[in-house]
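Data availability (excerpt). All sequences and predicted token strings are deposited with the supplementary files. A representative entry, Protein-lysine N-methyltransferase SMYD4, is shown inline so that the format can be inspected without opening the archive.
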Amino acid sequence: MKSENLVFQQFCQRIIATLQEDDINTFSSLKDDEDRIRYLYKCGNVDVNKTPTEKCLESAKAEKEKGNSFYSKKNLKNAIVCYSKGIIICPQDSDSSKELLAILAANRSAVLYEMNKTEEAIRDIEYALEDAKCPKNILYKLYIRKGKCLLAQQDKEAATLAFEKARDFLSEASLKESALNDRKKEIADSLKIAQNINCNKNVKSNRNNPELNFPRNKKFNGAHSLVDFSEDVDQGRFAVAKEDLPVGTVVVEEKPFCSVLAKDYHTKNCQNCIKSVKLPIACPRCSSVVFCSLECRDNALDGFHSRECEMLPSLIQSAASVNCAMALRLITCRDLNYFRNFKNLNNLPECEKKNFEFFNHIYSLCRHEEQRQPGDFLLYTAMALFLLKLLMLTDYFGNVQNDSLSDTKAFVGSLILRFLQILQFNSHELSELQPEPLDTQSGKKSCVSVDIGGALYPTLALFNHSCEPSIVRYNIGNRIVARLIKSVKKGDIIYENYGPMYTTDPKLNRQKYLKDRYWFICKCIPCEENWPLYEEMDPSCLKIPCKTNSCKNYVIADDKLDPFKNCPNCGAVNTSNILNALKMLQGVDSYLNDGEAHFKRMEFKKAISYFLSAMKIYHLHTVPPFPDYIKVQQRLRTCIVHMGNKYNELLDE
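Structure token line:
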């Protein structure tokens, strides 16, 4: 990484370098985050500079001309790329620049229409018509194009309205009489076609997965009603099954309290919903972000992006981490008055205190402050100061720009410092499936899950780790879905995974990673029982649960196939249990064959049902770990992840 992109790191180093030994000793004695902010702000006077946004009318015009050239040669994909670049960098601060933006969007809609992307073309037409800055002489073209797109979608009423508007705007077109008559006939013929449509628009099937419609926990709305949360001294808070939950159950589906994109994805994915973007909608003021729709743009501009816009280029260029960006987003998603009221929460009426219950849950998440060393606090405080100074470059604290640290600024700085500590242990990655290079030998396509940002999920943050997790996670936009990849019995803890897996990572490596990264010693069953790695497992050694309900032990069915085995724990003879288990396991093959066939055809939803059936049999008649169980579970995990975010292949088709 180039040195000029290490602004964040250099700031932290410089501010710490200004401290004398007495300063460090005094800082180490501080017990309050706000005091830490105040002290380091006073001692380390290091400035943060604002990076200007990059909008350029001439560059946008050049991209339009390049796009037109590609379009004339029927190089449609490159035409879209150029129009999109022009849209992102086009200023929106004058009538002429807004007109150029409208033309760029209109031109892109023409390309999309030619590619038979009717839904996308309609969205761009609406983008071009926004703010009434589109040249009047092309309005009729846009409405004709919109009408034809709607005809293709069998939307009788909307198509008719579009063609009628096209007819109304013909007078603005300054067409010669022959061309005008041709257009009038085209519109009249299109209106007749619209009137002959029998139905009014094809009703699209509900895209929401039905499994996401489940009864919700009353206190933690993101969780299933059959998931409860407990707490003890050793484990902190954790999730527990209130009843038996079968494999495949969605136990969490929630939106984040905040989410951010990693540096490399700010102009590849929507800043608001995180979805992959190939047809960007631009921010009116900066070229640092893109949006997937006018709705997402407006939501962001009504909230966090209105407060981040002018400082975001500086944040991106600083090379600050995703967690740093999230700590700042936790502030910018609320106005300053919200935090003033939070600071004085005890003085608010009871009815107003309810507005802060959800935020208070975030504020109270684990941060292990009692284990944190003074040097760690010093680094985190320097990080918080950098983010606070970025915020001070905006009008977040009002129109008055000064370097003084008011009580309000100090409090906001202390919140940023606290959030940095919380996010270290509670944030989750945002993921997206992206295509890998085509396998030239097999001709098969494959995908890999890539981290594209981070998010804070209040409910999922309460789940503890196991090296044999109960769930697999995936994102739909910036929402998170957690689905069981093993059945869970009533009263059992529902575990997620913080990274290392018992199947691929040796115990010592897992323990070291979790201790260094999350500050705990893992005591999950695979760690306590020292389960073997997948490659070390004996495929002939099958564990079958004891038939005694109160016994949690098992008997081993090996190559000797001796059915007369006593449970080493309770002594029960498991003859019938072993024979029944072996019989049931023979039926797994048919599920696996069908599931694998669908998997190879990339029919993941269909494959899931077969792999779930196999896993239910394994749950009833075996005890992990063993290789076949792991292979099926991994197939199930892969299929479920394909229900989540995917790279937009619009221009790759």
